[in-house]
Design goal:
Layout (H helix, E strand, L loop, with lengths): L2 H23 L4 H8 L3 H9 L6 H11 L3 H5 L13 E5 L5 E7 L7 E7 L4 E4 L7 E8 L1 E6 L2 E6 L3 E5 L4 E5 L4 E8 L3
Antiparallel strand pairs: 1-2, 2-3, 3-10, 4-9, 5-8, 5-10, 6-7, 6-9
Helix pairs in contact: 1-3, 2-3, 2-4
């Protein structure tokens, strides 16, 4: 198993434990949380057991149902003033596109630092984030087509943009592999 696969497995298991811990601390049954998140009981059980690899949208639904943000479930918690963060591959598809969470704030809604790679011709369609959420993006290689509602921007290497991500949006790569850094700031 590669280092990335080990990190992904560790992430899935850690997230499952955190979901279970928060659900139990909130006095919720598996069925109650599943209903609030709009998931099946079976899917939530598999997530808590670390045997399912949920989509980013699914993790967001669970976080919202628990009253926390994505980072609260994804990032290891710490009260230390200085903490080294291990990158965690949170999403990957069969084409080899992927999203890596490098570090997230310890505060609810605090910034998250992501690195994305999209393979040529690949696209990621996102669900709206909570109202007021913004993303800052910097393309580090390739060409990224960023679309929000009816507006599209083409970003080349070295260009950046701000996205109000509280609406449907997408990322797409053209003919070359595209990498970009993404900083997400949820509304407070």
């Amino acid at each position: 198993m590669s280092t990335d696969e080990n990190r992904s497995t560790a992430f899935i298991e850690r997230m499952g434990r955190e979901v279970r811990r928060r659900r139990q601390a909130g006095g919720m049954t598996v069925q109650t949380l599943a209903d609030r998140a709009g998931l099946s009981r079976r899917m939530l059980t598999q997530i808590e057991q670390g045997t399912a690899n949920p989509s980013l949208v699914t993790v967001d639904k669970i976080a919202n149902a628990l009253g926390v943000d994505f980072a609260a479930l994804a990032a290891p918690s710490s009260t230390e003033p200085l903490q080294l963060s291990e990158p965690v591959e949170v999403w990957r598809n069969d084409a080899g596109s992927r999203a890596v969470l490098h570090v997230a704030s310890a505060h609810k809604g605090g910034p998250e630092l992501w690195e994305w790679t999209l393979q040529p011709g690949d696209r990621y369609d996102a669900e709206p984030d909570p109202s007021g959420t913004e993303e800052l993006l910097l393309v580090t290689s390739g060409t990224l087509v960023l679309t929000a509602e009816d507006q599209a921007l083409t970003l080349t290497t070295g260009t950046s943009a701000r996205l109000a991500s509280d609406r449907t949006y997408s990322y797409a790569a053209r003919t070359d592999p595209t990498t970009f850094v993404r900083v997400v700031q949820l509304s407070q």
